[in-house]
């Protein structure tokens, strides 16, 4: 078993981003600027946003975290998004999901100017991604592609099975793996909770991407010897044994599955760290105006 080491790869790519950012600042006289909106006080979301802000600082970006109480109305939130869309000093905007039930995430996603949509969730970016045109690629699938590229994992002609079809992970991942690019050119099966014979589907995969949200869902008897396994899941459980008070588990039973794989991502230390890298790269591109002219 070889480890797809998110810690190592993300550190290396962040060093490159840091250098590029310094050059951008020298040329333009300003820092790339990311704004993150956080509604309510979901523990997981707070941790993710704090980590995104910390990493912005690390590579030399300006970052702003705007926080709202859980009872903010959809209209108020959209008004703020429109204000940010019009602000030339802000390059990228993300609204941390999940949102409270009274706010429609689709409407919020579409309210964000697609040229500042560094999460890559806007339908314009998703459509352009499907057509292999320049766009912001959703951060998690983007990070996974960067990881596959870093390790030179052969994907062309391979059978990939993605478990989970969410708009932010599973669906875009299946599109990227199927595209005529490198990494890519896989024969992709996208599975979900209504898939029949899921175990059989996964057993046939050369590359497995698990994005379900259930601890240890992918077990060793579902995995073909030599498969590449990407574990996107982040399942938090309270623990008295850690400083933070919780412990993270993936969607893959790592101890047993890793005995059979050629390559596998750990949790933590895998996809989560690469997601941040995807976001940072998108934000830098937004500031430089290389994907959409400013
Ligand atoms: P969603 O809840 O939006 O989607 C889960 C998907 O899993 C759905 O498509 C669902 O199917 C499918 N699913 C659920 N149960 C089963 C089952 N028994 N068999 C087959 N498919 C099933 O989750 P996300 O995509 O947002 O996130 C998935 C996981 O990844 C979570 O743990 C999340 O925390 C983590 N995550 C990690 C990130 C990172 O940076 N590492 C970033 C984003 C997410 P259906 O559509 O039919 O309901």
Short synopsis of the structure:
The protein is of the alpha/beta class and 294 residues long.
Mind sketching the topology for me?
Blueprint: E1 2-3, H1 6-28, E2 33-39, H2 43-59, E3 62-68, H3 74-85, E4 92-95, H4 105-111, H5 123-130, H6 139-150, E5 159-163, H7 170-178, E6 187-191, H8 198-203, E7 207-210, E8 228-231, E9 235-238, E10 246-249, H9 254-257, E11 263-264, H10 271-288
Parallel strand pairs: 1-11, 2-3, 2-4, 5-6, 5-7, 7-8, 8-11
Antiparallel strand pairs: 9-10
Helix pairs in contact: 1-10, 6-7, 6-10
What does this structure look like?
This protein is α/β, with parallel strands linked by helices. It has 2 domains: 86 residues, Leucine Dehydrogenase, chain A, domain 1 (Rossmann fold, 3-Layer(aba) Sandwich), CATH 3.40.50.10860; 134 residues, NAD(P)-binding Rossmann-like Domain (Rossmann fold, 3-Layer(aba) Sandwich). Helices cover 39% and strands 16% of the residues. A 6-stranded parallel beta sheet has the order 1-11-8-7-5-6. Strands 3-2-4 form a 3-stranded parallel beta sheet, sandwiched between helices. Strands 9-10 form a two-stranded antiparallel sheet. The radius of gyration is 19 Å and the shape is globular. The model has no long low-confidence stretch (mean pLDDT 97). Bound molecules: NADPH dihydro-nicotinamide-adenine-dinucleotide phosphate (NDP). NADPH dihydro-nicotinamide-adenine-dinucleotide phosphate (NDP) binds next to α10.
């Amino acid at each position: 078993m070889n480890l797809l080491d998110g810690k190592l790869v993300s550190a290396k790519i962040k060093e490159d981003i840091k250098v590029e950012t310094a050059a951008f600042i020298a040329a333009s006289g300003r820092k790339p600027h990311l704004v993150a909106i956080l509604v309510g006080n979901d523990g997981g979301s707070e941790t993710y946003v704090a980590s995104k802000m910390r990493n912005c600082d690390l590579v030399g970006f300006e970052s702003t975290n705007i926080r709202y109480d859980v009872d903010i109305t959809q209209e108020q939130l959209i008004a703020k998004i429109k204000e940010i869309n019009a602000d030339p000093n802000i390059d990228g905007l993300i609204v941390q999901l999940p949102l409270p039930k009274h706010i429609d995430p689709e409407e919020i996603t579409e309210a964000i100017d697609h040229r500042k949509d560094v999460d890559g969730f806007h339908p314009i970016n998703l459509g352009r991604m499907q057509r292999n045109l320049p766009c912001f690629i959703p951060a998690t699938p983007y990070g996974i592609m960067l990881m596959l590229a870093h390790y030179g994992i052969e994907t062309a002609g391979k059978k990939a099975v993605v478990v989970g079809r969410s708009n932010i992970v599973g669906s875009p991942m299946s599109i990227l793996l199927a595209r005529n690019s490198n990494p890519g050119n896989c024969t992709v099966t996208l599975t979900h909770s209504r898939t029949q014979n899921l175990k059989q589907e996964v057993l046939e995969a050369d590359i497995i991407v698990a994005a379900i949200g259930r601890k240890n869902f992918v077990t060793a008897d579902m995995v073909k010897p030599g498969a590449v396994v990407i574990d996107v899941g982040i399942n938090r459980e309270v623990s008295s044994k850690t400083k933070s008070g919780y412990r993270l588990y993936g969607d893959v039973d790592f101890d047993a599955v890793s005995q059979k794989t050629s390559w596998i991502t750990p949790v933590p230390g895998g996809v989560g760290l690469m997601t941040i890298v995807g976001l940072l790269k998108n934000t830098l591109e937004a500031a430089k105006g290389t994907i959409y002219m400013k």
